[in-house]
Amino acid sequence: MGPFLTLAWPQRGPRIVLISERQSAERQKADACAHRGDLGKDGRIARAAVAAPDSISSHFLTWWPSTLGDMKEEQRRLIDLGAGVFTVSEVCRVLQPTMTPRKVHYWLDTGLLSAPVRWGSRGHPTLLSYRQLLEIRTVQNLRDELEFSLPKVRGALEWILEHLFAEVWTDLHFAKGVDGSLVAQSGDEQMVVPGGQGVLEGTLPELNDRVAETRRAWEEQAFVVPDHEYIVSNARVLAGAPTIRGTRIDTAVIAGFSEADTYTQETLQEIGSIYPWLEREAIVDALEFEGISPAA
Amino acid sequence: MRYLLDEQLDQVVAASMAPIASKSDDEFLHILAVARPGTPDDEIPRLCRERDVDCLATANVRDFGARKFYYQALLAEDLHVAVLRPGKVKFYEEEQLSLLSRSYRAIRSVVVSAENPQLMACTPSGVRSRSIDELVEEFDRGQRLP
After folding, report:
1. Mean model confidence pLDDT for chain A
2. Lowest-pLDDT choice from A187-196, B2-11, B37-46, B51-60
3. Fold that domain B2-125 belongs to in CATH
4. What is the enclosing helix (H) or strand (E) of A263?
5. Which of A34, A165, A245, B28 is in the most buried spot, having the most CB atoms within 10 Å?
6. Above 70 in pLDDT, residue A52?
7. What is the β-pairing status of strands A38-39 and B80-84?
């Protein structure tokens, strides 16, 4: 692996910093930054990081002009309608109560997750796609519920997250090979998962269930929020904000009718009069998702 | 000029705005009058084109957060977006109507005069609009809409 090059282009002018060889995770982050870039308000590169090959200057000169135009267009329209977009705190809100911004940033920074729509910086939130929301949910499930040890199965997990959303792996499931390896299967496709030896055979049924669940959520572009049967994150509705299933009403709007984190029967009646097509149970579920409890 | 009210807003608001809007030959439609509940975001531009809608009026009670990028995608589909932001009041139908009717002239003025689609943040203290280019610049500077 070669050295790394960081280009900084603040108001005062360009700055080039050569960084020595780093670990693989940092390289992935640098690659993602290079792909994304950051444009200053004058349209110039404000900050970027690229993996430097043989010659710093030749790479800089060939990379910069050709990438600049693409990035401008990309920034004009960061997402397509229906694709879903989330800040890290919004992801944590959907995957409450165990998800924290610290975990999300750690998994992003160490390259476990795919590169975000946009890396954050001061005053700019990191933006994640619906796919990344599902990646985080998958890691959360495997780690917290199936008690996977991330250091032991990290390689396998990276493989799973990379292939889980691919067209060719529509029916992805896993089995143990004769030598203890983890074998991924889908239709006629079969492949040994690198680093899969650490996955215990006893956890395979749950792993397959989780993978199938995530795949379904990917194909439907929506999933029901755990423990809240009426609340969904649908990438095609309000860009994935938690909404009441089958509507465009986000839970935050419903929460706005409560008082001091509690609700009464009167609150439910008032909300019901504004949205008469909503079931009472759905309103209660939305309020409780927002951390609002019934008044004593 | 036609405005489409999103599902978070009460249907009675569209009906109540009708007499005011008719003086300017404008019209307010509620999304549930033309589409099913839970209409996906990506169907809204087509819905608006088919009904000659110029502006989507929607609501957001929290920080814009990632929602700003969703609004940007609507602007890229050539649609003006007016976001009602009620502040700390409970967003009953009378509050929705109050905020929308108070913002209506300013929204109309922006829609009539703008060369490009605008994102309008409508608060009790007024209407502020941004074009797609200004939004991009805002993202780069990390500033927030009011």
Report:
1. 78
2. A187-196
3. Rossmann fold (3.40.50)
4. strand A262-263
5. B28
6. no
7. unpaired
Beta-carbon separation of B66 and A90 below 8 A = yes
Domain match, A216 and A129 both: yes
**Do A132 and A156 belong to one domain?**
yes
Those residues of chain B whose CB sits closer than 8 Å to some CB in chain A are 6-8, 10, 31, 37-42, 44-45, 59-62, 65-67, 69-70, 72-74, 76-77, 86, 90-93, 132-133, 136-137, 139-143
User: Closest by alpha carbon to A26, among A44, A63, A1, A46?
Assistant: A1
Q: Which of B11, B32, B70, B132 to mutate to test the interface with A (most CBs of A within 10 A)?
A: B70
Residue A53 belongs to domain spanning: 4-76
d(CA B12, CA B18): 10
ipTM: 0.92
The SS3 call for residue A241 is coil
Which A residues in the span 153-192 are in contact with B, Cβ-Cβ below 8 Å?
Answer: none
pLDDT more than 90, % of chain A: 51
A124 touches chain B (CB under 8 A): yes
